[in-house]
Amino acid sequence: MPTTDMRAIFKTVLYQHMRVNSQALDTTIFPNADGVQMIPGLLAS
């Protein structure tokens, strides 16, 4: 059974809901999570 990396959930929420800059997410907030992708469609528009 595949699992979801919690960093992907938090990156998506911080970017889409809180409008945190994606560069800040990748360099400051989650510096070792370069390969972790945001989850499309996680939040309703």
Secondary-structure blueprint of this entry?
Elements: H1 6-16, H2 22-29
The total tally of domains equals 1
Number of helices: 2
Structure class: mainly alpha
Tell me the span between the first and last alpha carbons. 28 Å
Helix content: 40-55%
Helices and strands, in order, run as HH
Record field, number of beta strands:
0
Residue fraction in strands: under 5%
Rough shape?
flat
Give the rounded overall mean pLDDT: 93
Please give the radius of gyration in angstroms: 10 Å
Give a quick account of the main beta sheet: strands, pairing sense, barrel closure: none
Comma- or semicolon-separated keywords:
45 residues, mainly alpha, 2 helices
Explain briefly what this protein structure is.
This protein has about 45 residues and is mainly alpha-helical. The chain has helices at about 5-15, 20-30. The mean pLDDT is about 95.
Task: Describe the 3D structure.
This protein is mainly α. It has one domain. It has 2 helices and no strands.
